[in-house]
What does this fold into?
Amino acid sequence: MRPDEYVEAVLELVERIPPGRVMSYGAVADALAERSGRTSARLVGSIMARHGGGVPWHRVVNAAGRLPPGHEREARARLRAEGTPLREAGVDMTAASWLPEEGM
It folds into this structure.
């Protein structure tokens, strides 16, 4: 998969995250690993920072549920409006994590 194809795959997957649910950067990378050969949560974070404005970027958080740096207030408001289970430091990952079906 070419780099531009990987960017598109990341953005397409983020579009599929249902309202009220989230994925971690690492979960996004893992979900695409077999198709892409890439496994970097940091790369997913970089893609989201550069290209994620047109997708529900607030539904991608770190593995501990912390919200996107510099956008915490807006992300929290959007997630709250969607009914996402939150806790003081961010998202309740046990209750809110979402994974795509096998064979995406």
